[in-house]
Amino acid sequence: MLDSLDDPSVLGLRNRVMLEVLWSSGIRRMELRQLRRGDIDVERGAVVINQGKGNKDRVVPIGERALSWLKRYLVHVRPQLAEVYDSGYLFISQKGRPLSPGHLTHIAGKAIRQQARLDKPGACHLFRHSMATQMLDNGADIRHIQAMLGHEKLNTTQVYTRVAIKQLKQVHSQTHPAERNTQTQPEADSHTEPPKSSSGGASGEPDTDPKPQRSGQPDLPR
Question: Of the four listed, 11, 35, 93, 215, which is most buried by Cβ atoms within 10 Å?
Fold first, then answer.
């Protein structure tokens, strides 16, 4: 989806870089908003989160792809946004001020709706959720994901394993002795009637922040 964001304007490039950082680091919306220029350690490839959720600090890695976009932003884009006033924040508006939480949600939501054809609440958090589940699918240890996301308790991170069950199913089918010995599996008989139920029954850039949307789905951990 991010590769299809090709707006070459100053704001278009800024928005692209913000989404690249969200997806690469998995940080929260408020953590992205509060980033300052000095919080990016280019040499170590890391982002310093000061006073994150629960007023806790942490350091999270950020990939080379996102870093390359960040360098471009710092050299060519941010100076234009900070010509009149510089608040010191990493991502700023055309007036040099930090972006509001609602503005960040609007930017992320617009990209998701237009590029991924999705219409879901919690737009910024979808990048965090996507990073966690995709890394788990690719073999990352859940405790490493816990540290990156800044979860105090492991059971908060374990919610993401529900989405990453595909990999666990593959491991189960490849390693469980009952699955590996396929010769002992019963053959399907097309003439055999299915068992009857014992019960006999059937089973059945805005000025104000947009209003939050509610969905029937449970909230994901933050």
Answer: 35
Residues 6+ apart with CB under 8 A from 116: 1
State residue 82's pLDDT score. 97
CA distance 75 to 17: 13
Phi, psi of 36 (to 5 degrees): -110, 165
| Contact between residue 131 and residue 23 where contact means Cβ atoms under 8 Å apart | yes
The pTM for the full model equals: 0.68
Euclidean distance between CA atoms 67 and 116, whole angstroms: 23
Separation CA 100–CA 14 (nearest Å): 15
| pLDDT value of residue 73 | 96
Give CATH superfamily name and number for 2-179.
Intergrase catalytic core (1.10.443.10)
d(CA 41, CA 58): 13
Ranges of each domain in the chain:
2-179
**Mind telling me the catalytic residues?**
28, 53, 125, 128, 151, 160
Averaged pLDDT, groups of 10, the chain, 222 residues long:
70 93 91 94 91 77 93 96 96 96 89 64 77 87 88 81 64 72 53 49 48 50 64
Q: Two tokens at 79?
A: 């100076």
How far apart are alpha carbons 175 and 179 in whole angstroms?
7
SS3 for 98? Answer: strand
